[in-house]
Amino acid sequence: MRILFCAVWWLAAFAPAWAGAKPPSVSLRICLETEGAGSSNQSVPVQLQNPDQTVYVNPAPEASERDLVGAEAYSGPGGEQGALLHFNRHAAIALSSATMQHEGKILVVFLDGRIVYAPVIDAALSSGDFLIPRGVLPEEIALLQAQAKENLKRK
Q1: Which of 2, 28, 52, 117 has its CA 20 to 30 A from that of 146?
Q2: What is the pLDDT of residues 16-70, one digit of tens each?
């Protein structure tokens, strides 16, 4: 019995490495601005540029890379590279609710830990699609696309 347990454990531990299925390595967080400094688990300070200001955001994201179901390259008006992100139903509802209830607040988009976009909410996002108009590198778009593909496999 012990040999069987060891064999099963060994297979479970090393099977993913054999399959060569390393999940894509990208981090995407869309976080909502909160009222201000509170306890460390309720808000974290974020330094924005343009305009230069500090805002506090909820560390629990409204949407993340785990919610992606699609990503497309987007060419902005000045030739800047952006991305059009497509989210699953859960994230679409969370983004819709957050943007409906918090008009005038800021959504901060983090991509691999750096802020790529921080728009002021002026309308509800109800489609499940989110446009980042600039600041996304081609390699990051490829990683986001790979992550979306991986997420769809898990469904």
Answers
A1: 117
A2: 444 555 566 899 999 999 987 655 568 899 999 988 999 999 999 999 999 999 9
